[in-house]
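user: can you give me the structure for this one chain? C-alpha coordinates are fine.
assistant: on it. calling the predictor now.
[tool input]
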Amino acid sequence: EAIDGFRGFGQVDIVLLDLCMPVKGGWDTFEGLTAIDPSLPIVVITARSDQYSLAKAAGVAGLMEKPLIIPLLLDMLEYLLAESVSKRLARIAVQSPATLYARSKP
Protein backbone atom coordinates (compact mmCIF):
# COMPACT_ATOMS: atom_id res chain seq x y z
CA GLU A 1 0.00 0.00 0.00
CA ALA A 2 2.84 2.41 0.86
CA ILE A 3 4.67 1.62 -2.38
CA ASP A 4 1.52 2.02 -4.48
CA GLY A 5 0.74 5.31 -2.73
CA PHE A 6 4.28 6.51 -3.31
CA ARG A 7 4.00 5.90 -7.06
CA GLY A 8 0.92 8.10 -7.33
CA PHE A 9 1.90 10.80 -4.86
CA GLY A 10 4.25 12.88 -6.98
CA GLN A 11 7.34 14.60 -5.53
CA VAL A 12 8.39 13.23 -2.14
CA ASP A 13 11.25 14.91 -0.27
CA ILE A 14 11.87 12.34 2.47
CA VAL A 15 10.28 9.20 3.91
CA LEU A 16 10.04 8.09 7.54
CA LEU A 17 9.70 4.32 7.41
CA ASP A 18 8.82 2.17 10.41
CA LEU A 19 10.14 -1.38 10.04
CA CYS A 20 7.17 -2.91 11.85
CA MET A 21 4.38 -2.83 9.29
CA PRO A 22 1.59 -5.29 8.55
CA VAL A 23 1.61 -7.49 5.43
CA LYS A 24 4.93 -6.41 3.87
CA GLY A 25 7.91 -5.79 6.13
CA GLY A 26 9.73 -2.50 6.40
CA TRP A 27 12.87 -3.75 4.64
CA ASP A 28 10.75 -5.00 1.72
CA THR A 29 9.10 -1.58 1.55
CA PHE A 30 12.52 0.09 1.70
CA GLU A 31 13.68 -1.99 -1.29
CA GLY A 32 10.50 -1.18 -3.21
CA LEU A 33 10.79 2.56 -2.60
CA THR A 34 14.49 2.70 -3.48
CA ALA A 35 13.80 0.71 -6.65
CA ILE A 36 11.43 3.50 -7.71
CA ASP A 37 13.65 6.38 -6.57
CA PRO A 38 17.19 5.41 -5.48
CA SER A 39 18.01 8.99 -4.46
CA LEU A 40 15.07 9.31 -2.04
CA PRO A 41 16.29 9.83 1.53
CA ILE A 42 14.63 7.25 3.76
CA VAL A 43 14.90 7.36 7.55
CA VAL A 44 14.27 3.93 9.03
CA ILE A 45 12.57 3.92 12.41
CA THR A 46 12.62 0.80 14.55
CA ALA A 47 12.18 -0.54 18.06
CA ARG A 48 14.68 -3.30 17.25
CA SER A 49 18.14 -2.58 18.64
CA ASP A 50 19.93 -4.90 16.19
CA GLN A 51 19.27 -3.04 12.93
CA TYR A 52 22.35 -0.78 12.81
CA SER A 53 24.53 -3.02 10.61
CA LEU A 54 21.68 -3.93 8.29
CA ALA A 55 20.66 -0.28 7.91
CA LYS A 56 24.21 0.72 7.13
CA ALA A 57 24.62 -2.07 4.57
CA ALA A 58 21.27 -1.22 2.94
CA GLY A 59 22.34 2.39 2.45
CA VAL A 60 19.57 4.06 4.41
CA ALA A 61 19.81 7.82 4.77
CA GLY A 62 19.24 7.60 8.51
CA LEU A 63 18.26 5.26 11.32
CA MET A 64 16.39 6.13 14.51
CA GLU A 65 15.60 3.71 17.29
CA LYS A 66 12.47 4.04 19.38
CA PRO A 67 11.65 5.73 21.57
CA LEU A 68 12.39 8.62 19.26
CA ILE A 69 14.24 11.62 20.55
CA ILE A 70 12.39 14.33 18.67
CA PRO A 71 15.18 16.96 18.61
CA LEU A 72 17.55 14.37 17.09
CA LEU A 73 14.94 13.35 14.53
CA LEU A 74 14.36 16.99 13.57
CA ASP A 75 18.12 17.56 13.23
CA MET A 76 18.38 14.48 11.02
CA LEU A 77 15.51 15.63 8.81
CA GLU A 78 17.00 19.11 8.50
CA TYR A 79 20.38 17.65 7.53
CA LEU A 80 18.95 15.26 4.96
CA LEU A 81 16.67 17.85 3.37
CA ALA A 82 19.63 20.22 2.97
CA GLU A 83 21.89 17.53 1.47
CA SER A 84 22.92 18.31 -2.11
CA VAL A 85 22.00 15.87 -4.87
CA SER A 86 25.67 15.20 -5.67
CA LYS A 87 26.46 14.46 -2.02
CA ARG A 88 23.40 12.21 -1.74
CA LEU A 89 24.38 10.26 -4.87
CA ALA A 90 27.96 9.86 -3.60
CA ARG A 91 26.62 8.61 -0.24
CA ILE A 92 24.33 6.13 -1.98
CA ALA A 93 27.16 4.88 -4.21
CA VAL A 94 29.20 3.80 -1.20
CA GLN A 95 26.14 2.77 0.85
CA SER A 96 27.10 5.06 3.68
CA PRO A 97 24.23 6.50 5.73
CA ALA A 98 24.21 10.23 6.24
CA THR A 99 23.37 9.77 9.88
CA LEU A 100 22.60 6.83 12.13
CA TYR A 101 21.32 7.14 15.63
CA ALA A 102 21.19 3.88 17.50
CA ARG A 103 21.26 3.48 21.24
CA SER A 104 23.77 0.64 21.07
CA LYS A 105 26.05 0.79 18.04
CA PRO A 106 28.13 -2.35 17.45
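assistant: here you go. The radius of gyration is 13 Å. Residues 7 and 37 are 10 Å apart (CA to CA).
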